[in-house]
Amino acid sequence: MRYVVKAIVGEENFIDMTPNRSNNFCCGGGGGYLQSGFQEQRRAYGQTKANQILATKADYCITPCHNCHAQVHDMSEVNDHAWETVHIWTLLNLALGILGPNEREYLGDDLKEVDVFHPESAM
Protein backbone atom coordinates (compact mmCIF):
# COMPACT_ATOMS: atom_id res chain seq x y z
CA MET A 1 0.00 0.00 0.00
CA ARG A 2 2.79 2.45 0.84
CA TYR A 3 4.39 1.80 -2.55
CA VAL A 4 1.13 2.65 -4.34
CA VAL A 5 0.46 5.78 -2.27
CA LYS A 6 4.01 7.04 -2.75
CA ALA A 7 3.72 6.44 -6.49
CA ILE A 8 0.48 8.45 -6.60
CA VAL A 9 1.37 11.41 -4.38
CA GLY A 10 5.15 11.39 -4.69
CA GLU A 11 7.46 10.12 -2.00
CA GLU A 12 8.21 13.70 -0.93
CA ASN A 13 4.51 14.19 -0.09
CA PHE A 14 4.07 10.94 1.83
CA ILE A 15 3.86 11.26 5.62
CA ASP A 16 3.69 7.97 7.50
CA MET A 17 1.88 7.68 10.80
CA THR A 18 3.58 6.63 13.99
CA PRO A 19 3.24 3.90 15.02
CA ASN A 20 2.68 2.25 11.66
CA ARG A 21 2.36 -1.10 9.92
CA SER A 22 1.36 -3.88 12.33
CA ASN A 23 1.57 -1.48 15.29
CA ASN A 24 -0.82 1.07 13.76
CA PHE A 25 -4.12 2.01 15.37
CA CYS A 26 -7.56 1.07 14.05
CA CYS A 27 -9.80 3.94 12.95
CA GLY A 28 -12.66 2.58 15.04
CA GLY A 29 -15.22 2.28 12.26
CA GLY A 30 -14.77 -1.27 11.07
CA GLY A 31 -16.44 -4.53 11.95
CA GLY A 32 -19.90 -2.98 11.82
CA TYR A 33 -19.12 -0.41 14.50
CA LEU A 34 -19.74 2.43 12.03
CA GLN A 35 -23.35 1.28 11.65
CA SER A 36 -23.84 0.20 15.27
CA GLY A 37 -25.53 3.39 16.41
CA PHE A 38 -23.01 4.03 19.20
CA GLN A 39 -21.72 7.28 17.71
CA GLU A 40 -20.34 8.73 20.96
CA GLN A 41 -18.40 5.56 21.80
CA ARG A 42 -17.19 5.15 18.20
CA ARG A 43 -15.90 8.71 18.17
CA ALA A 44 -14.21 8.27 21.55
CA TYR A 45 -12.41 5.17 20.29
CA GLY A 46 -11.63 6.85 16.97
CA GLN A 47 -9.97 9.80 18.68
CA THR A 48 -6.83 7.66 19.04
CA LYS A 49 -6.60 7.48 15.23
CA ALA A 50 -7.56 11.15 14.92
CA ASN A 51 -4.71 12.14 17.24
CA GLN A 52 -2.36 9.99 15.18
CA ILE A 53 -3.48 11.75 11.99
CA LEU A 54 -3.25 15.18 13.62
CA ALA A 55 0.34 14.44 14.68
CA THR A 56 1.35 14.09 11.01
CA LYS A 57 0.08 17.62 10.20
CA ALA A 58 -0.90 16.18 6.81
CA ASP A 59 -3.49 17.93 4.64
CA TYR A 60 -4.97 14.59 3.53
CA CYS A 61 -5.57 11.21 5.09
CA ILE A 62 -5.79 8.46 2.47
CA THR A 63 -8.10 5.59 3.39
CA PRO A 64 -8.31 2.11 1.85
CA CYS A 65 -11.95 1.18 2.51
CA HIS A 66 -15.44 2.61 2.92
CA ASN A 67 -15.60 2.07 6.69
CA CYS A 68 -12.24 3.75 7.26
CA HIS A 69 -13.21 6.61 4.97
CA ALA A 70 -16.51 7.27 6.73
CA GLN A 71 -14.95 7.07 10.20
CA VAL A 72 -11.85 9.14 9.39
CA HIS A 73 -13.99 11.76 7.58
CA ASP A 74 -16.31 11.95 10.59
CA MET A 75 -13.33 12.33 12.92
CA SER A 76 -12.05 15.17 10.72
CA GLU A 77 -15.37 16.95 11.22
CA VAL A 78 -15.17 16.38 14.98
CA ASN A 79 -11.65 17.90 14.85
CA ASP A 80 -12.75 21.04 12.94
CA HIS A 81 -11.90 19.62 9.48
CA ALA A 82 -8.23 19.33 10.34
CA TRP A 83 -7.61 17.20 7.22
CA GLU A 84 -9.29 16.06 4.01
CA THR A 85 -10.21 12.38 3.86
CA VAL A 86 -9.86 10.68 0.50
CA HIS A 87 -10.25 7.11 -0.78
CA ILE A 88 -7.13 5.66 -2.35
CA TRP A 89 -9.19 4.78 -5.47
CA THR A 90 -10.08 8.47 -5.85
CA LEU A 91 -6.39 9.39 -5.98
CA LEU A 92 -5.64 6.49 -8.32
CA ASN A 93 -8.31 7.70 -10.73
CA LEU A 94 -7.12 11.29 -10.39
CA ALA A 95 -3.55 10.20 -11.18
CA LEU A 96 -4.80 8.27 -14.21
CA GLY A 97 -6.78 11.30 -15.41
CA ILE A 98 -10.10 9.45 -15.31
CA LEU A 99 -11.74 10.90 -12.19
CA GLY A 100 -15.08 12.39 -13.14
CA PRO A 101 -16.20 15.85 -12.03
CA ASN A 102 -18.94 14.29 -9.88
CA GLU A 103 -16.43 12.05 -8.02
CA ARG A 104 -14.52 14.84 -6.28
CA GLU A 105 -16.61 15.45 -3.20
CA TYR A 106 -13.84 14.53 -0.79
CA LEU A 107 -11.00 16.33 -2.54
CA GLY A 108 -9.80 19.60 -1.13
CA ASP A 109 -9.97 22.78 -3.17
CA ASP A 110 -6.36 22.22 -4.23
CA LEU A 111 -7.33 19.06 -6.17
CA LYS A 112 -11.00 19.53 -7.16
CA GLU A 113 -10.21 21.00 -10.57
CA VAL A 114 -7.18 18.86 -11.50
CA ASP A 115 -7.70 17.40 -14.98
CA VAL A 116 -11.36 18.42 -15.16
CA PHE A 117 -12.52 19.05 -18.70
CA HIS A 118 -14.87 22.01 -18.93
CA PRO A 119 -16.68 21.88 -22.30
CA GLU A 120 -17.51 25.60 -22.17
CA SER A 121 -13.80 26.49 -21.98
CA ALA A 122 -13.06 24.53 -25.17
CA MET A 123 -15.18 26.84 -27.29
The secondary-structure class comes to: mainly alpha
Mean pLDDT: 91
Taking the sheet with the most strands, its summary is: 2 strands, parallel
> How much beta, percentage-wise?
5-15%
What is the percent of helical residues? 25-40%
* String of helices and strands: HHEHEH
Q: Tell me the strand order in the biggest sheet.
A: 1-2
Rg over CA atoms, rounded to whole Å, is: 16 Å
Principal-axis shape equals globular
Number of domains: 1
Quantity of strands, as a count: 2
Q: List unreliable stretches of 5+ residues.
A: none
Q: Count up the helices.
A: 4
Distance between the termini: 41 Å
What report would you give on this structure?
The chain is mainly alpha-helical and 123 residues long. The chain has one domain. The chain is 39% helix and 7% strand. It has four helices and two strands. Strands 1-2 form a two-stranded parallel ribbon.
